[in-house]
Structures are given as C-alpha cells and as structure tokens.
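Morning run. Coffee first, then this:
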Amino acid sequence: MKQTILLLTAVLLGLGGCAVKEETAVQEPTEDTQKTAEPEQTQEPAETEGKTLLVYFSRAGENWDVGVIEKGNTGIAAEYIAEVTGADVYEIIPVVPYPSDYMETVALAEEEKSAGARPEIANAPENWDSYDTIILGYPIWHGDLPMIVYNFLESYDFTGKTVYPFNTHGGSGLAGTPDKIRNTIPAADIKDGLALTGKTVQNDFTQVQGDIDVWLQENNLIR
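And here it is:
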C-alpha cells in the first residue's frame, strides 16, 4: 500500500514538472523583447554635395542695341538656364550700382579695366562648399569679363569645381574669356563657353533657346 502511494506521488510530481516546462516553451515574448527584436531605423544623410549653382552678373538700364531694358540680357538667359537645369541661383550685385546711362557705364567699365579694379560685391553665395558645378554668366565689357566678375572669381575657392561659362555680347562672341577664367581660377575645370547675342536674347529669345539647350545637353546639365 505504502509503495503504491509513493509511486503515485512520483508520477504526479513528474507530470507537474512537464506542465511547467510546456508553459515556459509557449510563453509569449514581452513588449521589451519585441522592441529589441525590431531592426533599428536609420536616417538617410541629407544630400549636400554635388549640387549646381548658377552665378551671373547682369545690368539693366540702357544697353547696346536694345535701348532701355528692365532686365539685363545675361539675366534673361540665366533665368532660363536655371529653370531647365534646376540649379540654385546667385546674382552678383555690386555695392555701388552701375549707371543706367549706357555711355556712363562704358566709361566707368573702361576705367575699372585700366585700373584693374575689383568693384565691391554686396552679397555672397550661401553654402558655397556644397556646389561642385558652377554655371557662370556675364556680359562682355570692353572685350573682357566685367571687373566685378573677376572679384567674384578671386574671392572663393574653386578647387575641384567644374565651371561652365556663358555670356551675352554685342558682336565679340566669347572674347577669349574662358581662357581668362582658367588663368584666374586654375584649380577649377573650365569647360567650353557659350556666347549669345544680347539683342537676340532680349528681343527674340526663341532664336537662342535652341543653342542654349544644345549646350546644356552636351554638358549633361539638363536635369
């Protein structure tokens, strides 16, 4: 009799142990366990490199062969280029504006060139280091870049940047300005330029739009 009771007790204890183990095996994970098991969410870094900046200098008022204008020839071309390339835009603005009278500006620009002047710039581009491509627009003054554009080129580090120059003119074309830019900022890669007649840009932009598009496509600048 005593042996039978002992045997039953042992069997019941054995079953109880199995029951505990089974319950442990199917236990649901706690909330903390679930959180630990989830993969961590990582935030993608913001894109700050490899952007394009369109830099230009332009003058309104009385201009050669187009009369008095509200927007400069180079400015008109720059707006279109910025639109089709998606480039950010920086306009070079002089501290002392150039005269509205054409002949007064001609005389002042000649004085600045003879003196090697560097007219002061009123503003500065933001986040300069984040741009590796610069599209540079300017008019031709006395067969050269305006002196204020030289001031801009000399004021910033162009190391590793690629520059695509374009200009507006009254008959002088590029006037050798891509080479002058190369000499001024030798650390940059200066590409072939695009010359646009100011009168055509101002009065019949559709005539030069195709030339601009081809130049941008050849240089893979259209977004």
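The first helix runs from residue 2 to 25. Good start to the day.
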